Amino acid sequence: GFLPDNTRAHNSSFFIVNTTIIMLSSIIFVIALVISAFGQTPDCLNDPTNSQCQNYVYPNSKSDVSSMCSGSMSNMPGCTLFTLCQDPTLSSSPYCNNLGILRILCSDMSMGPCNNMKKLCSNGSVVAECKMETLPLPTSVDAANDITGICNSMQMAGCSECGTSMTCDLLTVYSNLCLSMPAMNECAPWKNYCALIPDWPLCSSEVAGSTAPPQMMMYFHTGFADYILFESWVPRNAGQYAGSWFAVFIISALYEGLKVARWIHELPIIRGEKVKLEMATRSKWTIKMFLQAAFQSEIVQALLRSIENGVGLLVMLIAMTYNVGLFFAIIAGTFSGWLIFGRFRYDQADASPTELPASTCC
């Protein structure tokens, strides 16, 4: 009834091997179950309600936006936003999220690249990207209608950019028009999104690189951006504004110098003409002699008066920008100009301060 020793040894080895195989198989099976249960990546695109999809990031959002903004559809407001967001100073904004921009574009015009976004952000989706706030930009149709309404009410520089076909950067043109005339009724959407991004080029003419026209404010105000006499003279930063301030200061000082120069030239002529007029009144050639005496200096006087009037009007137009800094530049320039040039009135041997001819301008 007893097995030989070699048989018992063989059976024991067989048992150990089988047991080992079974244990390893069980371990592998358990590991497979764990991986299956916890390590599988959910299909968030087709099942965005899966609780594991909350932090899912759609990988093709940027390429989808680029696809929609190529060709004839590049003038959509969302495409302008996408372009602005390539600026490193703006790209960190939450409004530059590519899926958010894609959502804006798809709400404007639904195209092929919108299909995945619609599935991902469908009702019940737990994907956080789908819940991020987006800028309340107008649609292409609304922006075009607002541009038309503004330009029908008041023709401005930007009105010629779009034409009747509206083949232009709609959001930029619309924003620039509202920067010029923010009180227009059509600018309500502009105010809404600019409340969220006040320092972006769409909403301020004083940011670096902005080409937006200055806002027309017919009351005293501060700030850099204002038209100063010419369309191209618009300071947009502190350095440009400082240079403009000193330019206005010098113009105002020179205006005072021109008034004194005219007085110095006119005073002896006026006195000489008074004498000649008295002599002419005793002669039968009164008119002829008076005209001869007067015409000798009329050209120079007319030239000086014209220059003085022209510079005075320029100073007046600068004051009408209602920019507080430029206004004080005029005051400071006038004060300094009088200190510098006013003393020359009294250097005339026979001059009397009360005989200064009245200013011809301003």
Task: Please explain how this structure is put together.
- This protein is mainly alpha-helical.
- The chain contains eleven helices and no strands.
- The protein has helices at residues 5-39, 61-68, 77-84, 98-108, 114-120, 140-153, 170-180, 188-194, 238-280, 286-319, 324-341.
- Helix 3 packs antiparallel against helix 4 (98-108), helix 6 (140-153) runs parallel beside helix 7 (170-180) and helix 9 (238-280) crosses helix 11 (324-341).
- The longest helix is centred in the C-terminal third of the chain and has 43 residues, at 238-280.
- The radius of gyration is 40 Å and the shape is elongated.
- The protein starts with a helix and ends in a 21-residue tail after the last helix.
- The model is unreliable at 349-356 (pLDDT under 50).
Name the features:
362 residues; mainly alpha; 11 helices; 54% helix; elongated
Beta-strand residue fraction: under 5%
H/E series: HHHHHHHHHHH
Q: How confident overall, as mean pLDDT?
A: 79
Q: Give the oligomeric state.
A: single chain
Q: How far apart are the first and last residues' alpha carbons, in Å? A: 137 Å
Shape: elongated
Helix content: 40-55%
State the total count of DSSP E strands.
0
Major sheet attributes: none
Unreliable stretches (pLDDT < 50, length at least 5) are 349-356
Return the structural class. Answer: mainly alpha
